[in-house]
Write a structure and sequence with these properties.
With 649 residues, this protein is an alpha+beta fold. It has 6 domains: 3-323, Transferase(Phosphotransferase) domain 1 (Transferase(Phosphotransferase), domain 1, Orthogonal Bundle), CATH 1.10.510.10; 324-353, no CATH class; 367-431, Trypsin Inhibitor V, Chain A, CATH 3.30.10; 436-510, Trypsin Inhibitor V, Chain A (2-Layer Sandwich), CATH 3.30.10; 522-574, Trypsin Inhibitor V, Chain A (2-Layer Sandwich), CATH 3.30.10.20; 579-648, Trypsin Inhibitor V, Chain A. The protein contains 15 helices and 31 strands. The strands form 10 sheets. A 6-stranded antiparallel beta sheet has the order 1-2-3-4-6-5, covered by helices on one side. Strands 18, 19, 20, 21 and 23 form a 5-stranded mixed beta sheet that branches. The chain has a 3-stranded antiparallel beta sheet with strand order 7-9-10. The longest helix has 22 residues, at 342-363. It is rod-shaped.
């Protein structure tokens, strides 16, 4: 056992009182896989354990548990079985079927491209497994060669449903675009949505790679590859490998149509067409043998290219042809060399140990992991460039933020400081700024109700509300103005408006009407107003109806608007009716002229005979003159009062 195996604290541990950990098989960005013994059923299993630094992350935990539930729902011979899922203290784990063998990625590395019989055998099995998933309403979302397992006993299975989702939840946000970019469907790149047809696209790319020996799109940056998926059509495989039958050209082109509606509706439809091709070509799936080995694959949605490791021992990729393959020839050659002498074997073992240790260190050990930098406050271009220096790929996503300005990075997933495999994808969440909300009319609402509704959209009071005297009920909002975050002109929201989260609102609320003090004495009115927080001063004015010394009214507020507590109001106090002077030259005027002059001044006029007992007829008004007045001419009398004229010839 290597030093790294010995230092792994889980080696030899009994997990959950049932699973004895024997050795580590593989390590990915989210979990490590061990071979373990199920003591209860006495069988060998693969134990997938979530990394301890992710155990407190509810998002990763939910993805981890989702893998167990998704795979457990699929009782299909071409899907890796999940036996159990549990929690031992802070350690979350899955118990999976143990499959000694290799992944299709390793087979492609060894053979470059696959033969038609090999391709048919593997695609038939993978499509069968995915058909069961699609029939159960599950989208895999991460179909790629690393997740196709070729067992040494000839079985072919698809595994790693860690990104799987129900088909009804088909929106893929930035967190969910963790599949390998080389296999991402155009709709995942452009719209972030996925369904069973997105798995079909990935299968089409994988089929192209099996037939040609390389992926259809290349680029220096992963985003260049993603752009080609969204804008270009996958070329015919026969353009690179003329020996490919036309039926496979058509199958690849059908599966990789940019428009999802033009692809097979699900894996069952594609499998039906593949089996028609098998009949047309008279080539059928078969697996005849596989040499001894002991590995299992793990991929947590973080592309590393080196997630599959080998247990101690010798293995060769299983073959699906009946001819002597490259792997068999390599084994025979190795045996002849082994007979050359024990010293050669010893040397090879030493070199293998060194190479294995170096490979582990840089492949899945500490040397393969890089830290996600803190990108908070960067622009997307800056974040993309900084991740590229670490060998990581940025996948942009957006979210609203009240704290981070628009177009700057809010966070990443995985978060800053997390250790991930090189070439992993990191979701960079860029701020859209605060979210906007439509606010209903605030005037007329109670203060408590308005505060509660605004708090739900993260709008807070700017301070204590301004109180004003109005006819509205106490604590009713009279007006409200909202200031956007960071300052700027306030918006009147009394009748409703649109406002950003993080804004502040200034309220003006009613404390009820100003008390009516008309008719009261100055002292009484002053006392009444003081009780509601108003001061009083007085001024006088004539009034024909309000008695002298009584309050006529309250004058308007200086500057206009309603009164506020603490203001000083002006009481307009009556001086009684206004006194009007009686002209002295009234004496000697004709009765008609005197009556006209006095009425213009606002008096009532009574014209009598000499002794005043009877009124003077109108026909004599131009003959008789005023001899005296009561009140006396030259004096004064209240406006509207009656002046009596005493006539004489």
């Amino acid at each position: 056992m290597s030093t790294s195996q010995q230092t792994d604290p889980l080696i030899g541990r009994l997990v959950d009182g049932r699973y004895r950990v024997r050795a580590r098989i593989a390590r990915g960005g989210m979990a490590t896989v061990y071979v373990a013994t199920d003591l209860r059923l006495e069988r060998r299993v693969a134990l997938k354990v979530m990394h301890s630094h992710l155990s407190d992350d509810t998002v990763f935990q939910s993805r981890f548990i989702q893998e167990a539930r998704a795979a457990a729902r699929l009782a299909d011979p071409n899907v890796v079985n999940v036996f159990d899922q549990g929690q031992d203290g802070e350690m979350a784990y899955l118990v999976m079927e143990y499959l000694p063998g290799i992944t299709m990625r390793e087979l492609l590395r060894e053979q470059k491209r696959l033969s038609i019989p090999q391709t048919i055998t593997i695609m038939d099995a993978v499509l069968s497994g995915l058909a069961a998933a699609h029939r159960a309403g599950i989208v895999h979302r991460d179909v790629k060669p690393e997740n196709v397992l070729l067992a040494e006993d000839g079985r072919i299975k698809i595994g790693d449903f860690g990104l799987a989702r129900a088909t009804s939840a088909n929106t893929a946000t930035g967190q969910m675009l963790l599949g390998t970019i080389a296999y991402l469907a155009p709709e995942l790149v452009t719209r972030g949505t996925a369904d069973a047809r997105s798995d079909i696209y990935a299968l089409g790319i994988m089929l192209y790679e099996m037939l040609v020996g390389e992926q259809p799109y290349k680029g220096e940056q992963p985003m260049q590859i993603a752009y080609q998926h969204a804008t270009d059509s996958v070329p015919r495989p026969s353009a690179r490998n003329p020996g490919i039958p036309e039926q496979f050209d058509e199958l690849v082109m059908w599966a990789t149509e940019r428009n999802p509606d033009d692809r097979p509706i699900d894996a069952r439809a594609m499998l039906d067409r593949l089996r028609e091709i098998e009949k047309e070509l008279a080539v059928y799936p078969h697996v005849v043998r596989a040499p001894s080995a002991g590995i299992v694959a793990v991929d947590d949605g973080v592309e590393s290219g080196e997630l599959t490791k080998v247990m101690p021992g010798t293995f060769t990729a299983p073959t699906v042809t009946e001819q002597v393959d490259n792997a068999t020839r390599l084994r025979l050659r190795s045996r002849r060399r082994a007979r050359a002498g024990g010293w050669v074997v010893a040397l090879v073992l030493v070199l293998a140990a060194i190479a294995g240790g170096t490979g582990w260190w840089f492949g899945s050990g500490p040397g393969s992991l890089v830290g996600v930098p803190d990108l908070s406050g960067r622009t997307l271009d800056q974040a993309t460039a900084e991740l590229a220096t670490q060998g990581l790929t940025a996948i942009p996503a957006q979210d609203h933020s009240r704290d981070v300005a628009a177009d700057l990075v809010i966070r990443t997933d995985p978060g800053a400081g997390a250790r991930v495999d090189k070439n992993s994808a990191v979701t960079v969440v860029v701020s859209l700024g605060p979210a906007s909300h439509d606010i209903s009319a605030l005037a007329g609402q109670s203060l408590d109700a308005a505060k509660k509704s605004l708090a739900d959209v993260y709008i807070s009071p700017a301070g204590d509300p301004t109180q004003v005297f109005t006819d509205a009920a106490r604590d009713t909002i009279v007006s409200a103005s909202i200031t956007p975050p960071g300052g700027g002109p306030a918006v009147d929201c009394s009748k409703g408006c649109s406002a950003l989260e993080g804004s502040t609102v200034a309220f003006e609320i009613s404390v009820g009407p100003v008390p009516d003090v008309s008719g009261q004495t100055v002292d009484s009115a002053t006392s009444t107003l003081k009780a509601v927080g108003l001061n009083a001063t007085a001024t006088q004015a004539y009034d024909d109806t309000v008695p002298d010394g009584r309050v006529i009214r309250i004058a308007d507020r200086d500057g206009g608007g309603p009164f506020r507590p603490g203001d000083t109001v002006t009481l307009v106090v009556s001086k009684g009716p206004e006194l009007i002077g009686i002209p002295s030259d009234i004496v000697g005027m004709t009765i008609r002229d005197a009556v006209s002059a006095l009425e213009k001044l606002g008096f009532q006029v009574n014209a009598g005979i000499e002794d005043g007992s009877l009124p003077l007829g109108f026909k004599y008004w131009d003959i008789y003159k005023v001899r005296a007045t009561n009140p006396k001419a030259g004096g004064s009398a209240p406006k509207g009062s009656t002046v009596t004229l005493t006539p004489s010839l």
